[in-house]
Amino acid sequence: MKLMTSRGAPRGARGTRGSALLYALAAVVVLVGMSAAVMSVSGANTRESVGASGDSRALYAAEAGVSRCIEATRAGLVPDRGMLEIGTQGAPAVFAGGDLRSSATDNGDGTVTILSFAEVAGSELGIEVVLSEGTPGIYSSALFAGNTSGDGTYDLEFGGVGTQADEITGNVYSGGNVAITDDAAVNGKITATGSINGGSGDTGETLPVPDIAALDYANNNDHDVAASFAADGYSASDALGGTALQMPESDPSHIFRLNPSDRSSDTAATAKDDYFLEDPYEAVISSSTVNEANATPITLSGQDGNPGPSGTDKVYYIDGNLWVHNKNIYSFKFANSGSEPIRVTFVVKGNIYFSDNILYEDSADDAVAFVAIDDPREIDSGNIYFGDPVFGTLEQMDAFMYAENNFYDNNLDAAGSKTVTVNGNMTAGNQVLINRDVGTQHSKLTVNFDDRLATGAVTLPGLPAAQGGAGVYSVASWRKIPVP
Fold first, then answer.
1. How far is it, in rounded angstroms, from Cα 7 to Cα 245?
2. Looking at the predicted structure, is the pLDDT value of residue 23 above 50?
3. Model-level pTM?
4. Based on the number of CB atoms within 10 Å of its own CB, is 257 exposed (0-12), middle (13-18) or buried (19 or more)?
C-alpha cells in the first residue's frame, strides 16, 4: 500500500622502498602539492556559517590527505607491512589553515588502510579508507554484467550500423558471453566467462560481484528517506506536477517527492512507494535542450546558502522505488554553484527508473551513485530501468549505476530515444538486458567510462566494495570516523 498521508606500483620493486629519505621527500612533495591545491581554491566564496565552513574545510583537508596517501600507495611508497605518514598526532602538518595527519598502512593481506584526520577552525573530522589489491571489479568497468544467475546462454550484446552503432569507451565484463555485431565498438578490454564474438579479449574468467546483504544499508545510512517522510512529510501541490508528500527545505530528504498524483498512471503497477528525485524549492526549467544551463536544479541542504545540515558525502536509503521522471521536465542537474563538491550515494531497496536526463553541473568534482538492491519480498526489485516509457526523452545520464539484479529498458526503440549516453558506468550483479532493436531502428548506447572511483580521485560513501587488480589498488570502503 502506498503512503499518502498529510504527515508522515606496481606493488613495485619492494626492495626499492627502504629509504627513509625517500619517504621524507615523498611527504614533502605531498604537502607542497596539497598547499598548491588549497591556494587554487582560496578565492572561493562561501555563504555558510563559520561553523559549517570549518566542517567543510576539515572534510576537504581530510580528503586531500586520503588522496595523497592513495597516490603514495600506488606509487609504491608504502613499505611492506609498514606505514607512510603525513604529519603525526604530536606534530601534525599545517594545511588549509589547520592541522592534518594522514597515514597509509600496509596490512600485509593485499589491503592498505588509510587514516586521515583534520582539524580546521575548531572542527574535527576523520576518514578511514581501505584500499584493496585484487582482480578488476565493477568500478574498473564501463559496463559490467555479473550474471549471478549462471545463465550459460546470456549474451551481453552491442550492435548498430553507422552513426547508430553502440560505442563503449572502457572495459567490459560479462559473466556470460559478449556479442558484438555490425559497427559497434568496444574501446577497452573485454573479459567474459563465456565466449566473445565479434571482438577479442580474455575468456574463461569470472569476476566477483559485491555482497550487498553484508552492507546492511537499512542500518548503515545517513538518511532513511522513508522514515523522514513518515515523520515530517506534508502534502502539497507544486509546479513540478501534482500533489505529493514533500519535506521541509532544511531536511536533506527535501530533494524527493513521494507518490505525486500526476504520475499515478506510471506508478500504478509498482508494489512499493515511489519517490521522485526533484526539488520543490527550485524553479522548474522545461527546456528540451540537454545541457546544464537548461536543466532543473536539485540542490542539497546545507550547500550554497541552503538551510539545514550538509547533504553531501551522505548515503540516502530509500525503501521503495526511485524515479527520475517528470512530465514537464527533460533534464535535472545536481546544482553546485559553490566550492563544496556534491558526493552522494542513493541506495534504493526496490527499482530505479531513469526517464529524464540527470546531469552534473561540475563534472570534474561532483559524483553521484545510484544503487538498486533486491527486496526479497518483491519479485521485481534490485533493477534499473532506463528510457521514457512514453516520450523517449532520455538522452544522458551522468552517474555511477549499480543494479544488484538487472538493467532493463523502457521504450528504447523506434518511438523512443535514438541515443542514450552514460557518463559514468553501468554495472549489474546479474544481467544487462536492453532490447534496442525494432525493425531497422537501433537506439545507440554510448558509455564513457568515468574512472574517478577506480583511481581514487573521487570517493563516495557506502558503495559496494570494488576489488582492485594485481598490483593495482582500488577503494574498497570509505567512511567517516571519530577523531581520537
1. 8
2. no
3. 0.73
4. buried
Residue 361 in grid coordinates: 553541473
Tell me which DSSP letter residue 292 carries: G
Q: Which amino acid is at 463?
A: L
What gap in Å lies between CA 426 and CA 397, rounded to an integer?
A: 10
Lowest-confidence region among 25-39, 46-60, 358-372, 444-458? 25-39
Instruction: Report d(CA 218, CA 319) in Å as an integer.
Output: 8
Q: How far apart are CA 102 and CA 80, in angstroms?
A: 18
Intra-chain end-to-end CA distance of the chain, in Å? 46
Q: Which residues pair with 446 in a beta bridge?
A: 167, 421
Give exposure, 166-199, as e/b (b: 16+ Cβ within 10 Å). Answer: bbbebbbbbbbbbbbeebbebebebbbbbebeee
What confidence category does residue 338 fall into, taking pLDDT thresholds of 50, 70 and 90?
Answer: confident
The amino acid at residue 218 is A
8 Å CB contact between 354 and 326: no
In a 3-state reduction of DSSP, which class is residue 461?
Answer: coil
- What angle do the packed helices 50-74 and 20-41 form, to 10 degrees? 140
User: What confidence tier does 223 reach under pLDDT thresholds 50, 70, 90?
Assistant: very high
| Contact by Cβ (8 Å): 84, 23 | yes
- CB–CB of 381/403 below 8 Å? no
Report d(CA 284, CA 329) in Å as an integer: 7
Decide: 186 and 199 in contact? Cβ < 8 Å. yes
Q: What is the dihedral of CA 302, 312, 92, 38, to 10 degrees?
A: -80
* Residue 438: all three cell numbers together: 525494432
Cα–chain center distance at 244 = 27
Q: pLDDT at position 244, please?
A: 98
Contact 437, 414 (CB under 8 A): no
- Per-residue pLDDT averaged across 397-415, rounded? 82
132, 319, 424 from 247: Cα distances, Å: 39, 16, 29
Strand blocks (E) in 17-158: 83-86, 93-95, 98-106, 111-120, 123-133, 143-145, 155-158
Dihedral sign of CA atoms 376, 400, 250, 234 in order: negative
Contact 223, 315 (CB under 8 A): yes
User: What is d(CA 53, CA 120) in angstroms, rounded to the nearest whole number?
Assistant: 9
Range in 28-32, 262-266, 461-465, 474-478 with the lowest mean pLDDT: 28-32
Q: How far apart are CA 239 and CA 66, in angstroms?
A: 42
The pLDDT tens digits of the residues spanning 286-330 come to 999 999 999 999 999 998 889 999 999 999 999 999 999 999 999
To which residue does cell 500533489 refer? 243
